[in-house]
Every structure is written in structure tokens, then in C-alpha cells.
Amino acid sequence: MDIRTQKTFEALFALEDIREVFRQALPNTTSPEDEQAIREGVDKVRKILDDIQSGTGNAEVRKIAGTIDIRSREENYINIQPIQAAGRLTPEARKALLAYGDGYSTCDACRKPFRLDKISNPPIAPFHEELARFVNMDQARVVPGARRGFQAVASTLVSKGDSVVVSALAHYTEFLAVEEAGGVVKEIPLNEKNLVTPDAVAEKIEAVKQETGKLPVLVMIDHFDYQYANEHDVKGIAKVAHQYDIPFLYNGAYTVGVMPVDGKNIGADFVVGSGHKSMASPAPSGVLATTDEWAPKIFRTTQMVGDITKRKFGIKEVEMLGCTLMGSTLIGMMASFPTVRERVNHWDEEVKKSNYFLDGVLNIEGSKVLSEFPRKHTLSKVDTTKSFDTVAQRHKRKGFFLSDELSGKGIIGEFAGATRVWKLNTYGLSWEKIHYLVDTFQDIADKHELQVNRSQLL
Amino acid sequence: MDIRTQKTFEALFALEDIREVFRQALPNTTSPEDEQAIREGVDKVRKILDDIQSGTGNAEVRKIAGTIDIRSREENYINIQPIQAAGRLTPEARKALLAYGDGYSTCDACRKPFRLDKISNPPIAPFHEELARFVNMDQARVVPGARRGFQAVASTLVSKGDSVVVSALAHYTEFLAVEEAGGVVKEIPLNEKNLVTPDAVAEKIEAVKQETGKLPVLVMIDHFDYQYANEHDVKGIAKVAHQYDIPFLYNGAYTVGVMPVDGKNIGADFVVGSGHKSMASPAPSGVLATTDEWAPKIFRTTQMVGDITKRKFGIKEVEMLGCTLMGSTLIGMMASFPTVRERVNHWDEEVKKSNYFLDGVLNIEGSKVLSEFPRKHTLSKVDTTKSFDTVAQRHKRKGFFLSDELSGKGIIGEFAGATRVWKLNTYGLSWEKIHYLVDTFQDIADKHELQVNRSQLL
Asked: Which positions make up the signal peptide (chains A, B) (predicted)?
């Protein structure tokens, strides 16, 4: 780890140790020992600050709790990992984690009716309203990951043996949510462009009806799939689903938080997003939004009555299991939200950078982009079988030569050892980093005597 | 907020801003602007350190992301809130949150077979093994809260209309988990001591069989309940359940992480614990552990096959929905674990402090402890109707007089405004704080002319 990053962590940690002195002390009282600990802590931080400024010193803290390495991937590298890019925290989210880490920190001012989304301090209730507006739906709840949103919808709508129509590129969590509810997934085949079309959805619905004698109970489609991040015609698909009176779940794991999403305009009955994938939020987090029509079903409150005590917990929602995302996970999500809400307006620029980078990769002869091109997303699948893999074939480090070269230049997040088909994500990288990426990939190609067509000027 | 705590947060935040400079910069490169930002940041932290040391300065950062107050409840108060005490983070967990906040931070080294609990760096796989050993069960998974553990078990075992036997003091999340699975809860009545006895469980099982023609499919009991934190004879209850061949779920939300729990000795088929309630962990977190006998059912892997693509995701567990707790939530849990594993050995001392404090409360004439007494837990329900509530009756602030008095002395976490029946938790407080609590409660009693029997010397 770069020493200045290391020292920044050490300063943060030393401040946490000072903070712990206040935690252990009596209210507004410090003992001479406390004062000494604070003084020593402050002195320690001062020395570390000298090192941060001058880039001097040696690593003094290497592990957290004795076994966990300090993670500096985002500080010391350009990270092109396919699923991490848009989940990277904002500084505000990191500050929220600092301040709200304690388990039930959200619950200090929990009052009647005792439900997370009703708490007004911290402003959790208004956040829920803003979240619903953000995706233009009527109501929203936070959930521990998009998968828990799929689960809530599937558990409500799917009975044993029911069919759910998903894409041939559906994420595995959609499979699991349907399976957990006792249903069966039915995949929609892709067209020659690796897209799910509304026509194919209609055909699949008809085929399911034919085969099982029953219509599917849900159509669930990823706006951009996790494999190619191709854009599928969700609006057209929602329309088809509704023609059969089947509700439509919009999987926005790769859209909500990075690009504008208008659930009503799409015709979504449910919009699911992922906090840690696309909303600069801690994991596990996500959002499930729905319409006023569906809310009473998906967010139905408990009807169970204790047979002895006659207890009822009327305000608690069954599929949410009551409160969902407590503590720093939620507050981190909230702290990033102003940034996230603003950043979706710059999606075009992100896509432009994605295309610019891939143009640079395509200039390395033999390279291909397997995702639709030009890109409409920052996640992409590339095929470098006829470029970098030809080097790997003759290199003693095999495919790891590319990882070695990249990490030597401060680039990380490619699938280590993969030089044929692999994915990457440029979301949130500055133009400066994008240029650096292109230069580095092309320099590596040069070094290994691959042809780089720089004439196709970027 | 105390100015030194305030300044500690400001220093932490300023360091996060420095860290962000490294995040935005090219690898191992800083521009003159970056250097200036770092220099200014370092100078800022230096000034803040002066303020921390001398207790000077004014608050300069009041909100995170413009709307979220900085939370300093644990730094500036003694917090006796009933559910927060044992979820309070260790310093190591706070450092883990710092370093692993980014959404998918756990997934840097995810390799085949691509499942969270198989990742060895950070050491997630060994942590899972240690977790299982910690509660003396065969296998364990982390889950986003104890409720998600109940859900996984209920969803596996409970079919529509099935009965699940729970305590008349069962937590509402047990109700919801059963309801979500389509089952019905059947409560076991309490004896005169507010305890669930094995005999009562046997009677209830017989009654359910009589009434529904079928045995219950699950017995789910809280070792210490959330209302009184009375200890219920889980070992005896497990034995009864097994006599009917019914599996037993041990709800350890108030035990796993604070006292030793031996699942095998108890005879538990499932042990569920809460990270944010009792394991000094960020929310939402928890553990679900089971035996080798039950693991293939509860942790069954997906059998779903894509009808078009023939895709299978064989390693992914249906009830876990694949991976469960990513990012800082899990790493925070792991960072606290060495402390948690050690602290359960000091449970007797925690109980001693709990009893000492309550003796002090009982010395205030008219006060009662509604939980079993002497206490076997640090969570307790008290009744001050005939002590503090008599003051509230004639006070212009009503029940809030007590909150005012307590917070004026740096004590927080009682249910604001409640002076009749309320709960508190002394877990993790030092003897110094316990003495301070007793003195403060008795001083408040004195001030309002309640009789304090100090002759019963503590």
C-alpha cells in the first residue's frame, strides 16, 4: 500500500482509539489516565500527519482485529471491477458509517408506530418518500439487497408451481427468489443481438400458457443485464406483460442510482434497485418500490394474532419482516443519496467515457466488444482472445501476465488470469483515469507486440 | 455535543476528505492541486487536534450530507437503551467499517465457487467455521439480521397452514417469519413466573395436534425473551420437541455474543443470533447455525435449471439467496468477533453489575423489578409506577421529568417520557458507570423527595 494511504488509515484508526476513550469515560468527565491517553493519541496522529504530508514513515498497522488486511483498492488503484464501480462510497457515506456504525443507531428516536420507515430523526421517513420519487413510483422500502426485493415480490405473487418469466440473461438471484417461493422460472430466449424483445416475451407467455395451462404470475426483467449490460426494451416488455394482466418487475440493479429511472413511464409494477451495486451504498442494501395499487399486497401488514395473548403487530409488514435496514447501512445509503440523485443526470457522460475506453481497447488488433456497441452502459464484456490471450498462450505467467501488467500500473479489478472473455466497468472514473486506462492497455499491447491501430485516433 | 467529541468527528471527517484525494488521483500520482488539498487537509486536522487536546473551538460540521446529525450518544452519554447495549461496536469494528465501507469490498478475491462463505481473503471462510464452533453447531451462515434466520428456517419447514409453536413472549419477527411462510403461530402460555416450561410446551404440542390433527412443524423459543429477559428452559424444551420429532429453533438474539451458547448441549437444531443486537456488529447482521443433519435442508442449493439456457447455479443456497452479508457489515462483524468470543466468558460479571444496579433502583421505595430477580441477564423490565411515576403525576413535564434529569446527568436510552413500566440494559458498562448510574438514580429520587433506603448498603 502507498505509504500516504497507509498513514491516512493509521490516523483514522488512531482517532477511533481517541474516540473510544470518550466512550469508556463517564459523561463529561475524564480521568488523568484518560487525559494521558488522549494526549498520546493526539501526539500519535500529529506524527502520522507529518508522514502523510511528506510521504515518509513505515506501516505500523497492518491488520484490523489481527486478521483483516486494510483495504486500499480504491485509494491506490483504478478499479475496473464489473460490479464494484457504482457501489463505491461517497465521502459522505463514509462519514455516515463512522457516525452511525453502532448496530441500532437508527433507532434512537423510534417512536410509535415503531417502524423503520416512519422514523423522522435521522430523516429516514423523508428519505423513503424521496426514494419513491427518485424512481417515480408511489411507495418505496429499503431492503438488504436487491435479491430481498425479488424475494418479497416472488413470495407474495408466486404459489407452488407458478411460472415466472425471466430473461435468458436473468441474474441468479431471480432464479433463487422464484425457487424459494416454490415457482419455476421460464426463460425468454435472446435474439441475435443478445436482447430480450417484447415479441419474445409475448411468445414465451403464450408458450407457458400452452404448456402449463396457466399464465405466468410475474414477468421480471433486468433493464441492463449482468452479462453484457445490453439494454432490453423494458417499456415494451411491460406493455406486453400488462396485455396479459401480468405484473412487471423492473430489475434496476444496474440502473437505479446511475441513470434516470422512471418506473411509471416504463410501466413497472415493481422497481428493484441495489444499494451496493449502483447507489454508492454499504452492503447489503437496496430498494423495492411499487405503485399504490400493489403496495397493499407487497407491503401488507401482519394479520397474525397470538392465540393465547391475542397479540397483534399490525403495523409490521410481513415481507419486510418488520424493520429492514437498520444502522449504518441505511444511513450510508441516505448520506450518498444527494450525490446519487444528482449523478444520474450525468449518465450520458459516463457512457461516453465507457465508449471512449472501449474504442481504445478495440484499437488493439484482435480485440472485440461482446456487449452491444456503441455501449449504452459502463459495464461491458470484452473478448481479447485474439489480442491479449495470444500473449498469454506463450507467457510463463499465462493469463496472469495481463493482471501483472495492469496492477504494475495501478489498475485492478479485471478477473485475475482471464485474457479471453471478461467484464469491466468504468463507472465513475474521471476522464483523466479513462485516458490513463487507454494508454496503459495500449502500452501493454505494444510491449507484447500486439498491433495497436493508433491511426484510429481517439 | 461535547466539543472534544465534536472535534474528534471533525478530524475523522477531514481525514476522509484527504482519503478522497487519493481516491480521485491517478495511481501513485498527485497533481499540484492534490498536494495543496492534502496540505490544507493536514493543516485542518492539526488545528482540530489542538481543539481536541484543549477542549476549545466551535462545532464546524453539524450535519452529514446536509441532513444527518452526527450521532454521539455513545461518546457523551451512558446509554441504557434496552436493545442497543450489546450491539455497540468495538473500535476494531469501527476500523473495519472505515476500511471496508465500499459495497462489494468483500468480493475482491471472490473465486470459484463464487460464494461469500467460501472467500478466504478477507478471512470470511474461516470466520464461518469459527462462528459455527462459537455456538457449538456444525455449520453457520451469516444473515442480514436474526429475522432472516427465522425466515430461512420457516420457509424451509413450514407449509401453508402448518403450526409453529412459539412463546407467549415471542418476538414479533418470529410471528412474521411464520406468517410469511404461510404458517400459523401457536403460543405457549407462561407460568406464574412469566416462564415457558417444557411441560407447557408438551401441552401445547398436544393441543395443536388435537385441534389441527397435525403436529407442529417447528418449536421456536427465545432463550431470554425480549420483554422480561427471563431465562426459559431451552434445554428442557428442546428435549420435549424432540420427543415429538419436532425440530427446535433456539432464538439467541439476546444470548449469542454476550454469554456462552452451546447449541449441541441445548439440543438445538437451529441457533439464530443477532449481530446488531448482541455481537457488537453493524446492522443488519446475524447468524444462522445448524447441524449436519439439517444443513442439507436449510442450506440446500438451488435445483432450478433455466429451461432455455440450461443454466444452473448449483453452489448457491436457496434460502440464503446466494451471498448474504457483503461489505462492511460482515467485516465489522468479523472485526468484533475476537472481542465477542472473549467477552462471553465474562457474562457472570455483567449479570452481577445488572443486579447491583437494580438493587440500587429497588432501594428507591416503591420501585419494582418485573423481570425474574435476581437477574440472570442485563436487560430488565422495571416498574417505577410507585416511585418515579408519583413525581411525574405532579410534574409539569410529566414523565419527561425523568428523561430530563437523566440526560442532564449524561444518561440516555430510557424510553423518553416513560415512568411506569420500562426496560433498560446495562450490558458492557464499567463498574464505574454502574456506580454512577445508581448514584444518579438515587440522587434524582432524593431531589424529588422519594424515599431512598440507603441503609440497604450496596
From this structure: none
